[in-house]
């Protein structure tokens, strides 16, 4: 890889983790012989603008951030025929990097993927005119995400468990109406509905263990009603291995597009950020761009 590295850093990602890793990343890129320019974002919109500038320069656009900025940058690059994205983990969750096999805690090794890795296709999920790389979900997840985003940064990855526990205490079942690929609507009463491009979210929670990044489909995972104690002691611990889908209250389906409404309003979250609201249509854009990943 001889292209200029256009490094986009989110200073606030992961409680400042991206900025703390930046000096090591810059040293590693220099040691690898990779020319680079560093740009810090002030917002997701600014990140999109920086990605456009980097692509116009013919550079390899690389994020040092969490999945939220990755999704914003990927949406810009997807409009280009030569779209190629590089990822350096710099957030709290880093779920896309985790799934791709990019080293999470070895900055130099992650940088080496930019030189020695391979380009592989990546689908993008879409909510309206917004794109996401991971899992778009609503219901219980809406409350848990909101609480986690408001939590103090010193909790680190613990914000996800904190958000889930706080949300569970106040949760009341909701009814979700799903229309999958134009089929007649069906109702699910319970906790949440997720539409997954990636298998993981929330820092290693495998909410959709069978989802693939490049199969042109979204995995739809719905969690039906169960007692809160069962949700806490049986379902949540299993999510970290993806075995929760074996429980009778969990349903899976695959779709190119799904329309979701609910009996009360919910904000839809994806890649850790609000991306829409019910009623919502969530779809997939197959092989929207390519992403650098470790060679097999």
TrEMBL record:
GO terms for molecular function: ATP binding; kinase activity; metal ion binding. Coiled coil: none annotated. Residues 1-131 form the DAGKc domain. Pfam families: DAGK_cat (PF00781), YegS_C (PF19279). InterPro entries: ATP-NAD_kinase_N, Diacylglycerol/lipid_kinase, Diacylglycerol_kinase_cat_dom, Lipid_Phosphate_FormReg, NAD/diacylglycerol_kinase_sf, YegS/DAGK_C. Its EC number is 2.7.1.-. Its cofactor is Mg(2+). Transmembrane segments: none annotated. One of its GO terms (biological process) is phospholipid biosynthetic process. Keywords: ATP-binding, Kinase, Lipid biosynthesis, Lipid metabolism, Magnesium, Metal-binding, Nucleotide-binding, Phospholipid biosynthesis, Phospholipid metabolism, Transferase. GO terms for cellular component: plasma membrane. SUPFAM superfamilies: NAD kinase/diacylglycerol kinase-like. The keyword Amino-acid biosynthesis does not apply. The keyword Lipid biosynthesis applies. SMART domains: DAGKc (SM00046). NCBIfam families: YegS/Rv2252/BmrU family lipid kinase (TIGR00147). Belongs to the diacylglycerol/lipid kinase family. This is Lipid kinase YegS. The lineage of its organism: Bacteria, Bacillati, Actinomycetota, Thermoleophilia, Solirubrobacterales. The gene is yegS_2.
